[in-house]
Design brief:
Rossmann fold, two-stranded antiparallel ribbon, 18% strand, alpha/beta, 332 residues
């Protein structure tokens, strides 16, 4: 082991906000924390703390998985610090996995109040226990959406954002999956029956099932409804197949492309905003990312934007670019 490597510590945190969450997901969860080499509680200027938000189908430990073809996040940040491409910083990995397969990091009566969980519980807890000067947020896919949204809503708390291939341009990234979800849910006889069948299966990564689960999760976040099964209002009718425009409108209210106008002043408060996406993104996130870039430019919101030759998956090498940039901006 290299003595110049950082260390991982695991905090077990009991959340009051998540205690009675509707999915009965665990409210006592691990928070994994990376501490840089020679971390000091008494360092006068403190450390940049970056919150990493996982994508759909992953949990906080996914960042640390062993892969013979690429670095995990611990190896990556150790190397970036060792090569002096990035200064010492603290990384925070809250586990926000839900039984719906993931999280969009917003408050919802169908999943729980995860924005409040991060902003009102995780941030104060980490700030009190560790020597943190300021916070940023980084994520890919759903995690990119979460990072962008948390920063857009809370720029005084989340002062820097790196949004990698985050959900946006909802017409392009979600609508193509609606027929699969509609058919699967109709065949199962409704949301509850399908959900029960899904969790009883041995293979939970069947493409049709995973697509259906994703649409359910998005509906739980964007169009929750206390009068519907599992508090989820779908944007299509399971009896007739009719597309429900009023429900879809609720989804679109969460699309970063459409939210920028309302939150442009908040976005201008951020110390750093990074956005990238692969030009061959399988979920068409590149269309939404480009729309975000153009909207930000029109509103004179300073940001870094890059399109790269790649798809949606296997892009963790992009952290080599975003993390140092975020560090530099937050330490100025």
């Amino acid at each position: 082991m290299n003595d110049n490597n950082g260390t991982i510590t695991v905090e077990k945190f009991a959340s009051k906000i998540l205690k009675n969450n509707p999915l009965k997901d665990p409210y006592i969860r691990d928070i994994m924390v990376y501490l840089p080499p020679e971390y000091s509680r008494s360092r006068s200027k403190g450390y940049v703390g970056i919150i990493f938000l996982q994508g759909f189908g992953a949990n906080s430990q996914s960042f640390f998985n062993s892969d013979p073809f690429t670095e995990n996040i611990e190896d990556k940040i150790n190397r970036l610090i060792r090569e002096k491409k990035c200064g010492p910083l603290v990384l925070i990995f809250p586990d926000c996995f839900t039984k719906l397969g993931g999280n969009q990091y917003i408050n919802s009566i169908a999943t729980g109040n995860y924005e409040d969980y991060i902003i009102k519980e995780i941030v104060p807890y980490i700030r009190k226990k560790y020597n943190i000067a300021c916070f940023g947020a980084v994520g890919h896919s759903s995690g990119g959406f979460g990072s962008f949204t948390l920063g857009m809503h809370n720029p005084k708390i989340i002062q820097g954002v790196a949004n990698h291939s985050g959900d946006s341009g909802f017409e392009y990234c979600y609508l193509p999956d609606f027929p699969i979800a509609l058919t699967s849910l109709m065949e199962a006889g409704g949301v509850k029956k399908w959900f029960k069948m899904f969790w009883e299966k041995q293979n939970k990564k069947n493409h049709r099932d995973f697509t259906t689960l994703n649409i359910l999760a998005m509906a739980a976040h964007y169009s929750p409804d206390e009068f519907e099964e599992m508090n989820i209002k779908l944007p299509f009718d399971l009896n007739s197949g009719e597309f429900l425009g009023k429900v879809w409108k609720k989804w679109c209210e969460w699309d970063p492309v459409k939210k920028i106008h309302k939150f442009k002043a908040n976005l201008k408060e951020l110390k750093y905003l990074y956005i990238d996406c692969g030009t061959k993104d399988e979920f068409n996130m590149n269309i939404g990312a480009n729309l975000i870039h153009k909207k930000l430019t029109s509103y004179q919101v300073i940001h870094y934007y890059e399109e790269f030759n790649g798809g949606h998956r296997n892009t963790s090498y992009r952290f080599d670019i975003s993390i140092p940039k975020l560090y530099d901006a937050l330490t100025q």
